[in-house]
Amino acid sequence: MEGAYQFGHDNGRTVSAAFFSANMAHQWLQTLWKPKLTGLFYWGSGDHDPADGQDNTFNTLFPLGHAYWGLIDNLAGQNLVDYGLQLAVAPTKKLTLSGALHWFML
């Protein structure tokens, strides 16, 4: 689990934003291909009223979205909720196959 809170003032606006993420995994080591199942959750705050003088959108300072949400880079962790499942199997020592399913709410 990890999270962060951003606060202060930026360009005359009061900043109050946050994110939280958690994941949990289990790997079956005594079975063929050693499958690993991971569940994940991510929440990043967003601003519902940009005209109110406050900024509640979490700012991902150095985003690496494709590492977490896919190569399309359409998501940056701002104003986002993500529920996900990932499955990985290793048919050989040098080959791992993985797949992921995400349910995004922006």
Radius of gyration based on Cα positions: 18 Å
Q: H/E element string?
A: EEEEHEE
Strands, total number? 6
Query: Low-confidence runs (pLDDT<50, min 5 residues)?
Result: none
SSE class: mainly beta
Beta-sheet strand percentage?
over 45%
Q: Which oligomeric form is depicted?
A: single chain
Estimate the helix proportion, in percent.
under 10%
Count of helical stretches: 1
Terminal CA distance: 21 Å
In short:
This protein is mainly β and 106 residues long. It has one helix at 65-69, and strands at 2-10, 13-27, 36-44, 54-55, 80-92, 95-105.
Helices and strands, with pairings:
Blueprint: E1 2-10, E2 13-27, E3 36-44, E4 54-55, H1 65-69, E5 80-92, E6 95-105
Parallel strand pairs: 2-4
Antiparallel strand pairs: 1-2, 2-3, 3-5, 5-6
How would you describe what is shown here?
The structure is a single chain. Strand 1 and strand 2 (13-27) form a beta hairpin. Strands 1, 2, 3, 4, 5 and 6 form a six-stranded mixed beta sheet that branches. The chain is 5% helix and 56% strand. It starts with a strand and ends with a strand. It contains one helix and six strands; from the N terminus they run E-E-E-E-H-E-E. 9% of the residues are buried. The protein has one helix at 65-69; strands at residues 2-10, 13-27, 36-44, 54-55, 80-92, 95-105.
Keywords, separated by commas or semicolons:
about 110 residues, mainly beta, six-stranded mixed beta sheet
